[in-house]
């Protein structure tokens, strides 16, 4: 039963990681497109950018991405998490092409297809290869 539970929560959290990454980056791009280029040693233009609603939404999504990624990495192997969640790169390119009307070359699409195939292969594996022992609490039990 533990195996099915682990797979179920891994799928759900992986989807959250991917979705928050894609939408967060999309929102940042939309917001920064409206704010304009921000290149300065002064923090003021960056603070101004953070007050834009799309940028603020993007930052919130990226924060949610970080928290969900930490959660996923707490039980799933790094060698599983990174390839599976890299599917967000493919979806981000698709969002850029469809919603931001960015030009994606055939070479870029080929790379996106390769990422997608690799993601699919890794997703078919079990997310945990090493069961980590619980941390030692210092309580050795009776007799010590």
Helix content: over 70%
Sheet having the most strands: none
Number of helices: 6
Cα-to-Cα separation, first versus last residue: 35 Å
Mean pLDDT: 87
Class by alpha and beta content:
mainly alpha
Poorly predicted runs: none
**Over the alpha carbons, how many angstroms does the gyration radius reach?**
20 Å
Note down, in words, how this protein is organized:
- It contains 6 helices and no strands.
Task: Give the helices and strands, then pairings.
Elements: H1 2-35, H2 44-50, H3 53-73, H4 78-85, H5 87-99, H6 106-123
Helix pairs in contact: 1-3, 1-5, 4-6, 5-6
In short:
The chain is an all-alpha fold and 144 residues long. The chain has helices at residues 2-35, 44-50, 53-73, 78-85, 87-99, 106-123. The chain has one domain (2-123).
Keywords:
flat; mainly alpha; 70% helix; 144 residues; single chain
């Amino acid at each position: 039963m533990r195996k099915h539970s682990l797979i179920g929560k891994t799928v759900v959290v992986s989807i959250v990681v991917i979705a928050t990454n894609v939408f967060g980056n999309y929102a940042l791009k939309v917001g920064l497109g409206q704010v304009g280029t921000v290149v300065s040693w002064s923090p003021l233009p960056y603070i101004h950018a953070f007050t834009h609603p799309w940028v603020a939404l993007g930052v919130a999504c990226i924060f949610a991405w970080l928290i969900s990624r930490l959660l996923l990495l707490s039980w799933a192997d790094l060698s599983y998490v990174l390839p599976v969640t890299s599917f967000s790169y493919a979806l981000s390119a698709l969002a850029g092409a469809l919603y931001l009307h960015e030009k994606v070359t055939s070479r870029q699409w080929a790379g996106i297809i390769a990422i997608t195939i690799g993601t699919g292969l890794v997703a078919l594996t079990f997310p945990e290869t090493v069961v980590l022992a619980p941390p030692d609490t210092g309580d050795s039990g009776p007799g010590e």
